[in-house]
Amino acid sequence: MAQQERAIRTRRVILEAAAAIFDERGYESTTIAEVLERAEVTKGALYFHFPSKGDLARGVLDAAVTTDGVRPQALKLQEMIDIMLLLAYRLPREPMLSAALRMAIDLQSRRQFGTAWPDWIELLTGILRDAKSRGEVLPHVDEAEIARMLVCTWTGVRVVSEGLPGGCDLPREVAVLLQILLPAVATPTVLPRIEVSAARAAHLYDDMPAWRAESARAEAVGLTH
Amino acid sequence: MAQQERAIRTRRVILEAAAAIFDERGYESTTIAEVLERAEVTKGALYFHFPSKGDLARGVLDAAVTTDGVRPQALKLQEMIDIMLLLAYRLPREPMLSAALRMAIDLQSRRQFGTAWPDWIELLTGILRDAKSRGEVLPHVDEAEIARMLVCTWTGVRVVSEGLPGGCDLPREVAVLLQILLPAVATPTVLPRIEVSAARAAHLYDDMPAWRAESARAEAVGLTH
Protein backbone atom coordinates (compact mmCIF):
# COMPACT_ATOMS: atom_id res chain seq x y z
CA MET A 1 0.00 0.00 0.00
CA ALA A 2 2.75 2.46 0.96
CA GLN A 3 4.62 1.40 -2.17
CA GLN A 4 1.52 1.90 -4.31
CA GLU A 5 1.00 5.36 -2.85
CA ARG A 6 4.61 6.23 -3.60
CA ALA A 7 4.17 5.07 -7.21
CA ILE A 8 1.06 7.23 -7.60
CA ARG A 9 2.91 10.21 -6.17
CA THR A 10 5.92 9.69 -8.47
CA ARG A 11 3.62 9.45 -11.48
CA ARG A 12 1.99 12.71 -10.46
CA VAL A 13 5.33 14.48 -9.96
CA ILE A 14 6.50 13.44 -13.44
CA LEU A 15 3.22 14.49 -15.05
CA GLU A 16 3.29 17.88 -13.34
CA ALA A 17 6.88 18.49 -14.42
CA ALA A 18 6.00 17.59 -18.01
CA ALA A 19 2.87 19.79 -17.92
CA ALA A 20 4.86 22.76 -16.63
CA ILE A 21 7.31 22.53 -19.54
CA PHE A 22 4.56 21.85 -22.14
CA ASP A 23 2.81 24.93 -20.79
CA GLU A 24 5.89 27.14 -21.06
CA ARG A 25 7.20 26.07 -24.43
CA GLY A 26 4.75 23.70 -26.08
CA TYR A 27 4.78 19.94 -26.46
CA GLU A 28 6.95 19.84 -29.58
CA SER A 29 10.00 21.57 -28.17
CA THR A 30 9.96 19.72 -24.83
CA THR A 31 12.53 16.94 -24.35
CA ILE A 32 12.40 13.94 -22.03
CA ALA A 33 15.73 15.08 -20.56
CA GLU A 34 14.12 18.34 -19.41
CA VAL A 35 11.21 16.50 -17.82
CA LEU A 36 13.69 14.24 -15.97
CA GLU A 37 15.60 17.24 -14.68
CA ARG A 38 12.49 19.13 -13.59
CA ALA A 39 10.83 16.10 -11.95
CA GLU A 40 14.04 14.96 -10.25
CA VAL A 41 13.23 11.28 -10.78
CA THR A 42 15.25 8.47 -12.31
CA LYS A 43 15.05 7.60 -15.98
CA GLY A 44 13.76 4.17 -14.92
CA ALA A 45 10.87 5.69 -12.96
CA LEU A 46 9.91 7.95 -15.84
CA TYR A 47 9.91 5.18 -18.47
CA PHE A 48 8.04 2.85 -16.10
CA HIS A 49 5.14 5.30 -15.86
CA PHE A 50 5.41 6.91 -19.32
CA PRO A 51 7.11 4.79 -22.01
CA SER A 52 7.08 7.72 -24.47
CA LYS A 53 6.68 11.49 -24.64
CA GLY A 54 3.27 10.90 -26.20
CA ASP A 55 2.17 9.08 -23.04
CA LEU A 56 3.03 12.22 -21.07
CA ALA A 57 0.83 14.27 -23.41
CA ARG A 58 -2.05 11.83 -23.06
CA GLY A 59 -1.62 11.83 -19.28
CA VAL A 60 -1.91 15.63 -19.18
CA LEU A 61 -5.01 15.64 -21.41
CA ASP A 62 -6.66 12.91 -19.29
CA ALA A 63 -6.21 15.02 -16.16
CA ALA A 64 -7.79 18.09 -17.80
CA VAL A 65 -11.45 17.12 -17.43
CA THR A 66 -12.10 17.41 -13.73
CA THR A 67 -14.99 18.21 -11.43
CA ASP A 68 -12.83 17.92 -8.32
CA GLY A 69 -13.88 20.34 -5.60
CA VAL A 70 -17.48 20.68 -6.80
CA ARG A 71 -20.04 19.65 -4.19
CA PRO A 72 -23.61 18.53 -4.95
CA GLN A 73 -26.03 21.48 -5.04
CA ALA A 74 -29.78 21.84 -4.80
CA LEU A 75 -29.72 23.16 -8.38
CA LYS A 76 -27.92 21.16 -11.06
CA LEU A 77 -27.24 24.41 -12.95
CA GLN A 78 -25.36 25.69 -9.93
CA GLU A 79 -23.14 22.59 -10.09
CA MET A 80 -22.44 23.29 -13.76
CA ILE A 81 -21.61 26.93 -13.01
CA ASP A 82 -19.38 25.82 -10.12
CA ILE A 83 -17.44 23.48 -12.41
CA MET A 84 -16.73 26.32 -14.84
CA LEU A 85 -15.96 28.91 -12.16
CA LEU A 86 -13.61 26.62 -10.29
CA LEU A 87 -11.79 25.68 -13.50
CA ALA A 88 -11.31 29.39 -14.21
CA TYR A 89 -9.71 29.80 -10.81
CA ARG A 90 -7.55 26.69 -11.07
CA LEU A 91 -6.31 26.92 -14.65
CA PRO A 92 -3.96 29.90 -14.24
CA ARG A 93 -2.61 28.24 -11.05
CA GLU A 94 -2.20 24.67 -12.32
CA PRO A 95 0.14 24.02 -15.27
CA MET A 96 -1.54 20.63 -15.77
CA LEU A 97 -4.77 22.39 -16.78
CA SER A 98 -3.27 25.22 -18.80
CA ALA A 99 -0.89 22.81 -20.59
CA ALA A 100 -3.89 20.75 -21.73
CA LEU A 101 -5.49 23.88 -23.22
CA ARG A 102 -2.19 24.94 -24.77
CA MET A 103 -1.93 21.52 -26.48
CA ALA A 104 -5.54 21.71 -27.65
CA ILE A 105 -5.01 25.01 -29.47
CA ASP A 106 -1.67 23.95 -30.97
CA LEU A 107 -2.36 22.46 -34.40
CA GLN A 108 0.42 19.87 -34.25
CA SER A 109 -0.36 18.48 -30.79
CA ARG A 110 -4.06 18.57 -31.54
CA ARG A 111 -3.63 16.42 -34.64
CA GLN A 112 -1.58 13.93 -32.66
CA PHE A 113 -3.53 13.70 -29.40
CA GLY A 114 -6.93 15.31 -29.94
CA THR A 115 -8.39 17.55 -27.24
CA ALA A 116 -10.42 17.26 -24.04
CA TRP A 117 -13.19 19.44 -25.57
CA PRO A 118 -15.52 16.59 -26.63
CA ASP A 119 -15.33 15.17 -23.09
CA TRP A 120 -16.14 18.59 -21.61
CA ILE A 121 -19.10 19.00 -23.98
CA GLU A 122 -20.39 15.54 -23.04
CA LEU A 123 -20.04 16.29 -19.33
CA LEU A 124 -21.92 19.61 -19.56
CA THR A 125 -24.59 18.16 -21.87
CA GLY A 126 -25.32 15.48 -19.25
CA ILE A 127 -25.67 18.05 -16.47
CA LEU A 128 -27.91 20.26 -18.64
CA ARG A 129 -30.18 17.26 -19.43
CA ASP A 130 -30.40 16.45 -15.75
CA ALA A 131 -31.14 20.11 -14.97
CA LYS A 132 -33.83 20.20 -17.68
CA SER A 133 -35.59 17.12 -16.29
CA ARG A 134 -35.80 19.03 -12.98
CA GLY A 135 -37.36 22.06 -14.64
CA GLU A 136 -34.30 24.31 -14.27
CA VAL A 137 -33.71 24.82 -18.00
CA LEU A 138 -35.86 26.67 -20.54
CA PRO A 139 -37.86 24.15 -22.62
CA HIS A 140 -36.56 25.22 -26.05
CA VAL A 141 -32.89 24.86 -25.05
CA ASP A 142 -30.84 22.34 -27.05
CA GLU A 143 -28.58 20.93 -24.31
CA ALA A 144 -25.77 19.74 -26.61
CA GLU A 145 -25.72 23.07 -28.47
CA ILE A 146 -25.53 25.08 -25.24
CA ALA A 147 -22.86 22.76 -23.83
CA ARG A 148 -20.80 23.25 -26.97
CA MET A 149 -21.29 27.02 -26.80
CA LEU A 150 -20.23 27.06 -23.14
CA VAL A 151 -17.01 25.19 -23.91
CA CYS A 152 -16.30 27.42 -26.93
CA THR A 153 -16.88 30.68 -25.10
CA TRP A 154 -15.09 29.64 -21.89
CA THR A 155 -12.06 28.72 -24.00
CA GLY A 156 -12.24 31.93 -26.02
CA VAL A 157 -12.27 34.03 -22.87
CA ARG A 158 -9.09 32.30 -21.71
CA VAL A 159 -7.28 32.36 -25.06
CA VAL A 160 -8.02 35.98 -25.94
CA SER A 161 -7.79 37.54 -22.48
CA GLU A 162 -4.40 35.92 -21.94
CA GLY A 163 -3.20 37.65 -25.10
CA LEU A 164 -4.52 41.12 -24.24
CA PRO A 165 -2.32 43.80 -22.69
CA GLY A 166 -2.88 43.93 -18.93
CA GLY A 167 -3.35 40.18 -18.70
CA CYS A 168 -6.43 38.44 -17.48
CA ASP A 169 -8.43 37.87 -14.30
CA LEU A 170 -9.94 34.63 -15.59
CA PRO A 171 -12.50 33.99 -12.80
CA ARG A 172 -13.88 37.51 -13.24
CA GLU A 173 -14.01 37.19 -17.04
CA VAL A 174 -15.70 33.79 -16.86
CA ALA A 175 -18.21 35.08 -14.29
CA VAL A 176 -19.14 37.96 -16.62
CA LEU A 177 -19.55 35.52 -19.51
CA LEU A 178 -21.75 33.15 -17.50
CA GLN A 179 -23.90 36.04 -16.20
CA ILE A 180 -24.57 37.01 -19.81
CA LEU A 181 -25.24 33.46 -21.04
CA LEU A 182 -27.30 32.14 -18.12
CA PRO A 183 -30.59 33.97 -18.90
CA ALA A 184 -30.60 32.09 -22.23
CA VAL A 185 -30.49 28.78 -20.35
CA ALA A 186 -32.17 28.96 -16.91
CA THR A 187 -35.90 29.31 -16.25
CA PRO A 188 -36.96 32.67 -14.75
CA THR A 189 -37.68 31.14 -11.33
CA VAL A 190 -34.31 29.40 -11.14
CA LEU A 191 -32.21 32.25 -12.54
CA PRO A 192 -32.11 34.50 -9.45
CA ARG A 193 -31.24 31.52 -7.22
CA ILE A 194 -27.95 30.81 -9.07
CA GLU A 195 -24.79 32.45 -7.82
CA VAL A 196 -22.26 33.44 -10.48
CA SER A 197 -19.32 35.48 -9.25
CA ALA A 198 -15.55 35.56 -9.09
CA ALA A 199 -15.91 35.50 -5.28
CA ARG A 200 -17.68 32.14 -5.53
CA ALA A 201 -14.81 30.81 -7.66
CA ALA A 202 -12.31 31.83 -4.96
CA HIS A 203 -14.47 30.28 -2.25
CA LEU A 204 -14.72 26.98 -4.14
CA TYR A 205 -10.96 26.95 -4.50
CA ASP A 206 -10.35 27.62 -0.81
CA ASP A 207 -12.74 24.78 -0.01
CA MET A 208 -10.75 22.24 -2.09
CA PRO A 209 -8.53 20.88 0.73
CA ALA A 210 -11.63 20.14 2.81
CA TRP A 211 -13.34 18.59 -0.21
CA ARG A 212 -10.24 16.41 -0.86
CA ALA A 213 -10.08 15.23 2.75
CA GLU A 214 -13.78 14.31 2.72
CA SER A 215 -13.42 12.50 -0.62
CA ALA A 216 -10.46 10.52 0.70
CA ARG A 217 -12.41 9.53 3.82
CA ALA A 218 -15.45 8.53 1.76
CA GLU A 219 -13.23 6.45 -0.50
CA ALA A 220 -11.54 4.78 2.47
CA VAL A 221 -14.90 3.54 3.80
CA GLY A 222 -15.94 2.44 0.31
CA LEU A 223 -18.42 5.21 -0.48
CA THR A 224 -18.64 6.74 -3.90
CA HIS A 225 -18.89 10.48 -4.10
CA MET B 1 -0.94 54.72 -62.25
CA ALA B 2 -0.88 51.35 -64.01
CA GLN B 3 2.51 50.74 -62.44
CA GLN B 4 1.20 51.65 -58.99
CA GLU B 5 -1.73 49.28 -59.43
CA ARG B 6 0.65 46.51 -60.45
CA ALA B 7 2.75 47.13 -57.33
CA ILE B 8 -0.33 46.95 -55.12
CA ARG B 9 -1.37 43.71 -56.79
CA THR B 10 2.12 42.18 -56.40
CA ARG B 11 2.18 43.14 -52.72
CA ARG B 12 -1.19 41.46 -52.26
CA VAL B 13 -0.09 38.28 -54.08
CA ILE B 14 2.99 37.99 -51.84
CA LEU B 15 0.97 38.61 -48.67
CA GLU B 16 -1.63 36.03 -49.63
CA ALA B 17 1.05 33.44 -50.39
CA ALA B 18 2.70 34.08 -47.02
CA ALA B 19 -0.65 33.95 -45.21
CA ALA B 20 -1.52 30.63 -46.82
CA ILE B 21 1.72 29.05 -45.59
CA PHE B 22 1.50 30.68 -42.12
CA ASP B 23 -2.02 29.26 -41.91
CA GLU B 24 -0.95 25.74 -42.85
CA ARG B 25 2.17 25.38 -40.79
CA GLY B 26 2.59 28.42 -38.54
CA TYR B 27 4.81 31.47 -38.84
CA GLU B 28 7.90 29.89 -37.27
CA SER B 29 8.36 27.05 -39.71
CA THR B 30 7.66 29.12 -42.82
CA THR B 31 10.66 30.13 -44.95
CA ILE B 32 11.02 33.07 -47.34
CA ALA B 33 11.98 30.55 -50.06
CA GLU B 34 8.57 28.90 -49.73
CA VAL B 35 6.76 32.24 -49.94
CA LEU B 36 8.74 33.06 -53.10
CA GLU B 37 7.82 29.75 -54.67
CA ARG B 38 4.13 30.04 -53.76
CA ALA B 39 3.82 33.69 -54.83
CA GLU B 40 5.77 33.18 -58.07
CA VAL B 41 7.42 36.58 -57.80
CA THR B 42 11.08 37.59 -57.96
CA LYS B 43 13.22 37.86 -54.86
CA GLY B 44 13.65 41.57 -55.64
CA ALA B 45 9.88 42.17 -55.65
CA LEU B 46 9.43 40.35 -52.34
CA TYR B 47 12.22 42.22 -50.56
CA PHE B 48 11.02 45.52 -52.01
CA HIS B 49 7.60 45.11 -50.38
CA PHE B 50 8.65 43.09 -47.31
CA PRO B 51 12.30 43.51 -46.19
CA SER B 52 11.92 40.70 -43.60
CA LYS B 53 9.72 37.75 -42.66
CA GLY B 54 8.47 39.83 -39.73
CA ASP B 55 7.12 42.41 -42.19
CA LEU B 56 5.07 39.66 -43.80
CA ALA B 57 3.63 38.75 -40.37
CA ARG B 58 2.77 42.40 -39.64
CA GLY B 59 1.20 42.75 -43.09
CA VAL B 60 -1.07 39.77 -42.43
CA LEU B 61 -2.10 41.07 -38.99
CA ASP B 62 -2.83 44.54 -40.41
CA ALA B 63 -5.21 43.05 -42.96
CA ALA B 64 -7.11 41.09 -40.29
CA VAL B 65 -9.28 43.92 -38.96
CA THR B 66 -11.73 44.59 -41.75
CA THR B 67 -15.28 45.83 -42.16
CA ASP B 68 -15.19 45.40 -45.94
CA GLY B 69 -18.53 44.38 -47.36
CA VAL B 70 -20.58 45.83 -44.50
CA ARG B 71 -23.09 48.47 -45.62
CA PRO B 72 -24.56 51.19 -43.40
CA GLN B 73 -27.73 50.00 -41.66
CA ALA B 74 -30.64 51.75 -39.95
CA LEU B 75 -29.51 50.07 -36.71
CA LYS B 76 -25.87 50.35 -35.62
CA LEU B 77 -26.22 47.00 -33.82
CA GLN B 78 -27.10 45.40 -37.15
CA GLU B 79 -23.84 46.76 -38.59
CA MET B 80 -21.92 45.23 -35.69
CA ILE B 81 -23.69 41.88 -36.17
CA ASP B 82 -22.98 42.06 -39.91
CA ILE B 83 -19.26 42.60 -39.28
CA MET B 84 -19.10 39.48 -37.11
CA LEU B 85 -21.28 37.35 -39.37
CA LEU B 86 -19.35 38.29 -42.50
CA LEU B 87 -16.04 37.60 -40.80
CA ALA B 88 -17.33 34.15 -39.83
CA TYR B 89 -18.14 33.47 -43.48
CA ARG B 90 -14.87 34.87 -44.82
CA LEU B 91 -12.37 33.46 -42.32
CA PRO B 92 -12.55 29.79 -43.36
CA ARG B 93 -12.33 30.93 -47.02
CA GLU B 94 -9.51 33.48 -46.70
CA PRO B 95 -6.10 32.32 -45.45
CA MET B 96 -5.19 35.96 -44.73
CA LEU B 97 -7.85 36.06 -41.98
CA SER B 98 -7.33 32.61 -40.56
CA ALA B 99 -3.53 33.03 -40.57
CA ALA B 100 -3.91 36.18 -38.44
CA LEU B 101 -5.94 34.20 -35.88
CA ARG B 102 -3.48 31.31 -36.02
CA MET B 103 -0.62 33.74 -35.24
CA ALA B 104 -2.61 35.33 -32.41
CA ILE B 105 -3.12 32.03 -30.60
CA ASP B 106 0.48 30.88 -31.14
CA LEU B 107 2.51 31.96 -28.11
CA GLN B 108 5.72 32.63 -30.02
CA SER B 109 4.21 34.75 -32.81
CA ARG B 110 1.99 36.54 -30.31
CA ARG B 111 4.96 37.61 -28.23
CA GLN B 112 6.72 38.89 -31.34
CA PHE B 113 3.90 40.64 -33.20
CA GLY B 114 0.99 41.02 -30.80
CA THR B 115 -2.55 40.38 -32.02
CA ALA B 116 -5.38 42.19 -33.79
CA TRP B 117 -7.68 41.64 -30.77
CA PRO B 118 -7.22 45.10 -29.16
CA ASP B 119 -8.10 46.71 -32.51
CA TRP B 120 -11.20 44.55 -32.83
CA ILE B 121 -12.28 45.41 -29.29
CA GLU B 122 -11.79 49.12 -29.99
CA LEU B 123 -13.78 48.89 -33.21
CA LEU B 124 -16.72 47.10 -31.57
CA THR B 125 -16.65 49.39 -28.50
CA GLY B 126 -17.01 52.39 -30.80
CA ILE B 127 -19.99 50.88 -32.61
CA LEU B 128 -21.65 49.92 -29.29
CA ARG B 129 -21.21 53.50 -27.97
CA ASP B 130 -22.75 54.86 -31.13
CA ALA B 131 -25.60 52.34 -30.85
CA LYS B 132 -26.14 53.28 -27.20
CA SER B 133 -26.39 56.98 -28.01
CA ARG B 134 -29.19 56.05 -30.43
CA GLY B 135 -31.06 54.09 -27.75
CA GLU B 136 -30.35 50.65 -29.22
CA VAL B 137 -28.37 49.32 -26.25
CA LEU B 138 -29.58 48.55 -22.72
CA PRO B 139 -28.57 51.38 -20.35
CA HIS B 140 -26.55 49.24 -17.88
CA VAL B 141 -24.34 47.74 -20.62
CA ASP B 142 -20.60 48.43 -20.32
CA GLU B 143 -19.65 48.83 -24.01
CA ALA B 144 -15.96 47.93 -23.61
CA GLU B 145 -16.77 44.87 -21.52
CA ILE B 146 -19.33 43.60 -24.05
CA ALA B 147 -16.95 44.32 -26.95
CA ARG B 148 -14.25 42.32 -25.22
CA MET B 149 -16.69 39.48 -24.52
CA LEU B 150 -17.78 39.45 -28.17
CA VAL B 151 -14.19 39.17 -29.40
CA CYS B 152 -13.40 36.45 -26.82
CA THR B 153 -16.44 34.35 -27.59
CA TRP B 154 -16.25 34.76 -31.38
CA THR B 155 -12.64 33.57 -31.21
CA GLY B 156 -13.48 30.69 -28.89
CA VAL B 157 -16.18 29.46 -31.25
CA ARG B 158 -13.64 29.38 -34.07
CA VAL B 159 -10.78 27.83 -32.11
CA VAL B 160 -12.78 25.08 -30.40
CA SER B 161 -15.17 24.21 -33.23
CA GLU B 162 -12.26 23.81 -35.62
CA GLY B 163 -10.79 21.22 -33.24
CA LEU B 164 -13.97 19.20 -32.80
CA PRO B 165 -14.67 16.05 -34.80
CA GLY B 166 -16.99 16.83 -37.70
CA GLY B 167 -15.41 20.23 -38.25
CA CYS B 168 -17.20 23.52 -38.02
CA ASP B 169 -19.84 25.55 -39.82
CA LEU B 170 -18.51 28.85 -38.51
CA PRO B 171 -21.30 31.20 -39.74
CA ARG B 172 -23.91 28.94 -38.12
CA GLU B 173 -21.94 28.68 -34.85
CA VAL B 174 -21.38 32.43 -34.71
CA ALA B 175 -25.07 33.11 -35.46
CA VAL B 176 -26.08 30.84 -32.55
CA LEU B 177 -23.62 32.64 -30.26
CA LEU B 178 -24.86 36.10 -31.27
CA GLN B 179 -28.51 35.05 -30.87
CA ILE B 180 -27.70 34.04 -27.29
CA LEU B 181 -25.68 37.17 -26.47
CA LEU B 182 -27.82 39.80 -28.15
CA PRO B 183 -30.65 39.93 -25.58
CA ALA B 184 -28.02 40.98 -23.02
CA VAL B 185 -27.12 43.97 -25.22
CA ALA B 186 -30.07 45.22 -27.29
CA THR B 187 -33.13 47.03 -25.96
CA PRO B 188 -36.40 45.05 -26.19
CA THR B 189 -37.76 47.24 -28.99
CA VAL B 190 -34.61 46.91 -31.09
CA LEU B 191 -33.99 43.20 -30.48
CA PRO B 192 -36.67 41.77 -32.82
CA ARG B 193 -35.57 44.11 -35.63
CA ILE B 194 -32.04 42.67 -35.78
CA GLU B 195 -31.37 39.81 -38.16
CA VAL B 196 -28.84 37.23 -36.98
CA SER B 197 -28.53 34.14 -39.16
CA ALA B 198 -26.07 32.08 -41.15
CA ALA B 199 -28.15 32.92 -44.23
CA ARG B 200 -27.47 36.62 -43.68
CA ALA B 201 -23.72 35.86 -43.49
CA ALA B 202 -23.90 34.10 -46.86
CA HIS B 203 -25.91 36.96 -48.35
CA LEU B 204 -23.37 39.54 -47.14
CA TYR B 205 -20.60 37.49 -48.71
CA ASP B 206 -22.38 37.20 -52.05
CA ASP B 207 -22.89 40.96 -52.00
CA MET B 208 -19.16 41.69 -51.61
CA PRO B 209 -18.30 42.05 -55.33
CA ALA B 210 -21.06 44.66 -55.70
CA TRP B 211 -19.91 46.39 -52.50
CA ARG B 212 -16.32 46.46 -53.84
CA ALA B 213 -17.36 47.92 -57.18
CA GLU B 214 -19.40 50.64 -55.46
CA SER B 215 -16.54 51.45 -53.06
CA ALA B 216 -14.10 51.74 -55.97
CA ARG B 217 -16.48 54.09 -57.82
CA ALA B 218 -17.03 56.20 -54.70
CA GLU B 219 -13.29 56.42 -54.18
CA ALA B 220 -12.72 57.41 -57.81
CA VAL B 221 -15.04 60.39 -57.48
CA GLY B 222 -13.48 61.31 -54.15
CA LEU B 223 -16.25 60.18 -51.82
CA THR B 224 -15.53 58.44 -48.57
CA HIS B 225 -17.65 55.43 -47.74
From TrEMBL, chains A, B:
Highest taxon of source: Bacteria
Keyword DNA-binding (UniProt): yes
DNA-binding region: 31-50
InterPro entries from the UniProt entry: ArpA-like, CprB_TetR_C, DNA-bd_HTH_TetR-type_CS, Homeodomain-like_sf, HTH-type_TetR-like_transc_reg, HTH_TetR, Tet_transcr_reg_TetR-rel_C_sf
Secretion signal, residue range per the UniProt entry: none
Keywords: DNA-binding, Transcription, Transcription regulation
A Pfam match: TetR_C_45
Domain spans labelled HTH tetR-type: 8-68
Record keyword Cytoplasm present: no
PROSITE patterns assigned: HTH_TETR_1, HTH_TETR_2
NCBIfam families: ScbR_bind_reg (NF041196)
Protein name: ScbR family autoregulator-binding transcription factor
Species whose genome carries this gene: Streptomyces exfoliatus (Streptomyces hydrogenans)
